[in-house]
Structures are given as structure tokens and as C-alpha cells.
Design brief:
- The protein is mainly alpha-helical.
- It has one domain.
- It is 54% helix and 5% strand.
- Strands 1-2 form a two-stranded antiparallel sheet. Strands 3-4 form a two-stranded antiparallel sheet.
- A hairpin with a 3-residue loop joins strand 1 and strand 2.
- Helix 1 runs antiparallel to helix 8 and helix 3 crosses helix 10.
Length: 295
Amino acid sequence: MYRICFCCLAIWLGSITMALGQEITPEDTSIFGEEMDMALVSDPLEPINRIFFSFNDKFYFWMLKPVSQGYAYVVAENVRICVRSFLKNLFAPVRIVNNLLQGKLVDTGVETARFVINSTVGVIGLVDPAKNEFGLSPKEEDLGQTLGVYGFGAGIYICWPFLGPSNVRDTIGMIGDSFLSPVSYLAWSDPGAGVAIKAGKEVNDTSLTLGDYEDFKESALDPYISLRDAYRQYRQKKILDVAVGSDSQYNYSFNIGEKPYVQELSMSVDSVLLTDDCLAQTENLVDDSPVMAMR
């Protein structure tokens, strides 16, 4: 039932985008028109979005962060990396199908090989021998990116409670991708188990990126605007297959050298780059990747 309601809400948002989209630039004639300049974001729902941004911010500091800190204290980092790798392997069908839909046959083969290798040699995905031993890096694609490749515009910006920044195109993509996720089918058959898995994933991922969101807020004059504009640029670069740095727990991260924010950041720190393999970690000095979203 909740999926039906969510789909209806996405359709409603699409309709109001069509009505409001022309207020952004004269060239925009529909929700799925040509892409605007990357610095421009259609945000007619800003008052509501700011409320949800504030809600997500408080949820992070009052609930998600304390729980994640406790979890990190009890569970060893190597184990948490294994959990992250296992859950990432579960979402391989999403990446495989979207690479195929975009006509990336080589990347489709790479993702398929990764899934087979990691599910067998990698012990149901707990480790990532496909990357660490065979040099097969993941090819991250989702339906939102696929729609963008086929020319669908982003539509209005949306900040969802709990889920964080999105837009109409990516919201539709998220719904479509859910039909390819084993976790979604588990949630449909057993809602309690589905919620537990998704909550556990969020806590586990957050425990590995504690401090990213705090650094992001400290660096931004207006965190809401910085997050909104950075998300827009990030998704556009993903669609164009431009390197955007490593993903963090919040899914949207940049290398500071790319200067994605409206406000320029001069801060740069050294950090340890964690691999998805709990048995093989290499320490590398990298630019800190500030958080782009709360998910």
C-alpha cells in the first residue's frame, strides 16, 4: 500500500512540476525538458523542502548519529565493512539492468561478473575479490541516471524526509529500482524485516562515515542551498559519466578539488580510504569527501 501511495505522490509532483517549471526559464516547457545550466535548480517547494531538511538534520544528530556511534563502538570496523560489501552486492541487479538499459554492454558484463565472483568466491558478498583481485570496479548506475541519459530532465528539487535530496526524475527512478532490489521484495512480504534491513544498512553505513555531514555543515554558509546545488551537479556528472569522487554513507560525495558548493571550500584534510573488502584495506591519503545528502 505504501508503495502505491508513494507512486501517486511522485505522479502528483510531476504534474506540479509541469505547471511550475516554466517559471524557471522561458526555455523549459515540461518536466522532462532540456537540462538547465548546472548552477540552476528548480525549487518551487523550497519552504517545504527546508522543513524536511531541518527534520533530517535533527534526525541525524538526535537519533542516527548516536545509534551509529554506539554500533561502531561495539562492532569492529572490519566487520562493518563486510556488512557494507554484502549489502552492496545485493543491489547488483539494479546496476546490471541499468547498465544494460544505457547500452553499456561492457559495463553490464563487468557488473555481472562482479556479482558472480563476489557471491561465490567473496562468500555471498562479504568481501570484494572482484575488485581487489581481478580489478573489476563497480559500475554505478541507477534508473534516475538511465532516465537522464535518455533525455529526461530532473524536474523540481525534492528533499524527502529520511531519504534526503532528490528530484522528480530520481524519485521515479528510485521507485523503479525498488522492483529490482531483493530487499524490496522482502519488505513487501515481511515489512518488519524490510524496515530492519534498511535501518541496519543506514546505521552501518553511517558508522563508517561519521563526521562527513558535520564537516559539510561547517563548511557551508547555507547548508540547504549547498546541499541542493551540489546534489544537482553530482547527479548531472553521474549521468555524463564524469568522475565525482568516492561515495560516502550518504551516497552523494565530492572531491573537494571539484568545488561543488555555492560557497567555495578551502578546507582539505587527509583521511583513510576504506575498501569494501574487510580482509584487504589499503591506507591512502585522499582529499576529504564531504557529505552531499542524508539517506
